[in-house]
From TrEMBL:
UniProt protein name: 5-carboxymethyl-2-hydroxymuconate Delta-isomerase
Source organism superkingdom: Bacteria
Length: 126
């Protein structure tokens, strides 16, 4: 079960961002990942109540996508390719929407390991 968190800075007006379309593109990109059920992905947006970016430029905006997954050899090998794909999605979807608000936006992507199930990552029975 992958987890996707998009963190955006407090100066971005989220009402003008099409998050549904953005996450559809991200989920479609994740379908190339071996043995990943994208339908079980936990995805969401966190808007910071305080953001410090760079030299405290009020026009600077944070767009930071984090993908957490259960890592294996195949997934580790594809991290560079997938990271570039996810970055391109951000650059062609949310970045123009943020820049349209008069902000400066340099997106970031992080792909990280959740750890091992029942050792460093736990899922409730539901």
């Amino acid at each position: 079960m992958p987890q996707l968190t998009l963190t955006i800075s407090q100066n971005i007006n989220a009402n003008f961002i099409n998050f549904k379309s953005l996450f559809e593109k991200i989920h479609n990109a994740l379908r190339i990942v071996p043995n990943m059920d994208v339908n079980t992905a936990y995805s969401g947006v966190i808007q910071e109540s305080y953001s410090y970016i760079g030299f405290n430029n009020p026009k600077a905006a944070k767009v930071y996508l984090q993908l957490y997954w259960m890592e294996n050899e195949e997934r580790t090998a594809m991290k560079p390719e997938l990271g570039k794909m996810l970055l391109e999605i951000l650059e062609h979807s949310i970045v123009p929407e943020v820049e349209g608000q008069g902000l400066i936006c340099i997106p970031r992507v992080r792909i990280a390991n959740l750890g091992r199930l029942n050792q460093s990552y736990f899922i409730g029975a539901g």
